[in-house]
Amino acid sequence: MLAEQMKTETSVENSANDPFSGLTGRTLKFVPLYLLVPVLYGVLFSAAGYPLQWKIFGLGALGWLAALFLRGPLAALVRGLPQERAKLIVGGSSGVLEEGVRLALLSLLAASFPQALSLGQGWAAIEVLFVIVNTLVILSLVNRTDEKAMQAKEILQAQGNLQASPLWGILERIWASAFHIGAALIIAHTPWTAALMIPLHSGFNLGAVRLAKATALPVVSLYAAAFGLLTLAAGLLLW
């Protein structure tokens, strides 16, 4: 009886000391909600009279994937640099690559307002899917003890916020999706604004990373909300 009690107390103590305790179950409950983000944007714009154009939606998704794959050669080029500098370069390249590909696709289409809306939604939706897959991969490492899993855990602990609610991640997808849709609308209406969106996009990402290291999640979310919603509002007002 005493042995069982001691075992239980030890288990509770280890669980309390383990920053990954409950992470899998807590996160998995919210993963389906990520899918609601693109669905709700689609429903909202459809209700406003602009249903999704699925071919353009798919083109937007392919555009995001193209921008992601273009990071590969860049990451290989900066591999020999100090880690923080390499991260800064790759992170800062997001504006150039994403807005560059977005401009190319929108120019190729000579996109109308409905087409730009669908392209932006496809771009945002595939990023949501990528986040879900990335989250599931991370969760698969939590209960493992091999070298790669332990390295991944160290990275997660260094990033902090392990005990934060997954709802913050869902909010982040709402704001990021607003940014992508707004950026598509802005560039489709006035192509030369891509030159402005490039530094704004990179600055947005780098700023969010710095804030995440220095302050609480609500502040980061507020920053992302302001940036994303203002971009979407600007895109809508232009048309």
Count of DSSP-assigned helices:
10
Q: Would you identify the regions where 5 or more consecutive residues have pLDDT less than 50?
A: 1-19
What global shape is seen?
Answer: globular
Kindly state the percentage of residues in helix: over 70%
Kindly give the count of domains: 1
Count of extended strands: 0
Question: What composes the largest sheet?
Answer: none
Strand content: under 5%
Order of helices and strands: HHHHHHHHHH
Helix/strand structural class: mainly alpha
Query: Compute the gyration radius: what is it?
Result: 20 Å
Terminal Cα span:
73 Å
* Overall pLDDT confidence: 81
Molecular structure report:
- The protein is 83% helix and 0% strand.
- Helix 3 runs parallel beside helix 8 (167-189).
- The longest helix has 30 residues, at 113-142.
- The protein has ten helices and no strands.
- It is mainly α.
- It has one domain (25-238).
List the keywords.
hydrolase, 239 residues, mainly alpha, globular
In a few lines, what is going on in this structure?
By secondary structure, this protein is mainly alpha-helical.
Helix and strand arrangement:
Layout lengths: L1 H16 L5 H6 L2 H17 L6 H24 L5 H27 L3 H30 L4 H13 L7 H23 L4 H21 L2 H22 L1
